[in-house]
Each structure stands twice: as structure tokens, then as C-alpha cells.
User: Which sequence fits this backbone?
């Protein structure tokens, strides 16, 4: 499972967040997930900038940044303009990737469950923000969006193979996006959410 990945202008370190109970618990909050996504995609931001973008009180943003910092997901950085009155933060990693790692025995089941449910809620909230903005977006972005679902009969091994194939496609487009030659007009961050799970009628 991947969190939002930055474009190639993001200064976040090129590494994955380690999967631990602390990181899962810190991220198991929709506000903290969105803060982390903003920092990973847009680069360092002040508390005020994050507050304005999310329409949340600065005090609440500072609290959640503190929780993320305790889990080593974000860190304070020096103000680029030297203004010490502003508190600047950046993400410590550019992605959170959980493969088989989320099944590790040293991570308690409650933390895994809470993270999964928070991730699902965050994905829904992100899509609703897109729908709210859609009427003011160029038609090309409406045509370039998708919200499909399919139920396919397969074994667990089949599902794993499909996930690996889809992952390769995603990696291909990530490499292309990171290429300097792909800097072209009209490039915007695009969210891709991949969910594969046993269908429960």
C-alpha cells in the first residue's frame, strides 16, 4: 500500500517509511495522513500554509505535526527566508509502502486495522475534494479521471500475481514522471488508489 508520492520537485528523501506500530498509529488519523501527503507532494511548508490549505486551525496542525514528528515521519527545517517566526516542516520520506510488511507479527492487529480504515477514509475524502473541484477544472481532467470497480473470480495467488503486474505498470509511470525529459506543460499531481480485496457480498 502506497501513500501519495511526490512529483520530482519534492525535496523529501527518496526512501520508504518503515512499517512499525508507531508509524501506523501516527498515520491513523485523516488529518495527519493529509498533512503528510501535502508535505510529500508540495515539499516543505509552514504551519500557516498547511492550515490555510486544509482549512484547519494552526494549533491543530501544530499538534498533528508533533505526532508525526514523534514517529519520525516529518521534521522541522530552517526557514528558507530566515524568518524564525515561521515554523517550517518537511516529510522525512517520500512514500509509505506496505507490502507483506503490514503482516509482520510485531505489529499489533489493532494498529493494522485502524490504519487500513483510516487509509480508506482518506482515499474517499481525497476523491470528494476532487469532485468538489471538478466543475471548475478543464474538461480534459474530467475525461482523464476514472472510478471503476470490478469483481473477478480468482485464487489468492492469482490476486497476488495481478497486484505485482499492476505494480509494475505504476512503477513504469513513476519512473517516467521522475524523468527530467518528462517535464511538460500541463503536468499536475495525479492520485492513483489501488485496492484489491476479497469481495464480501
Assistant:
Amino acid at each position: 500500500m502506497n501513500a501519495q508520492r511526490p512529483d520530482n520537485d519534492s525535496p523529501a528523501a527518496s526512501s520508504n517509511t518503515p512499517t512499525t506500530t508507531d508509524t501506523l498509529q501516527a498515520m491513523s488519523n485523516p488529518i495527519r495522513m493529509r498533512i503528510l501527503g501535502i508535505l510529500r507532494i508540495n515539499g516543505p511548508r509552514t504551519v500557516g500554509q498547511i492550515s490555510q490549505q486544509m482549512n484547519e486551525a494552526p494549533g491543530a496542525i501544530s499538534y498533528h505535526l508533533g505526532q508525526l514528528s514523534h514517529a519520525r515521519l516529518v521534521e522541522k527545517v530552517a526557514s528558507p527566508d530566515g524568518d524564525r517566526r515561521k515554523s517550517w516542516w518537511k516529510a522525512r520520506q517520500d512514500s509509505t509502502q506496505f507490502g507483506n510488511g503490514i503482516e509482520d507479527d510485531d505489529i499489533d492487529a489493532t494498529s493494522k486495522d485502524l490504519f487500513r480504515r483510516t487509509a480508506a477514509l482518506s482515499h474517499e475524502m481525497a476523491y470528494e475534494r476532487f469532485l468538489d473541484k471538478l466543475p471548475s477544472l478543464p474538461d480534459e481532467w474530467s475525461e482523464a479521471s476514472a472510478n471503476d470497480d470490478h469483481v473477478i473470480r480468482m485464487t489468492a495467488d492469482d490476486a497476488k500475481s495481478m497486484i505485482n503486474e499492476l505494480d509494475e505498470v505504476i512503477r513504469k509511470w513513476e519512473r517516467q514522471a521522475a524523468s527530467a525529459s518528462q517535464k511538460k506543460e500541463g503536468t499536475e499531481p495525479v492520485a492513483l488508489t489501488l485496492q484489491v480485496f476479497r469481495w464480501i457480498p
Q: What stands out?
A: The two ends are 23 Å apart (CA to CA). Residues 23 and 120 are 17 Å apart (CA to CA).
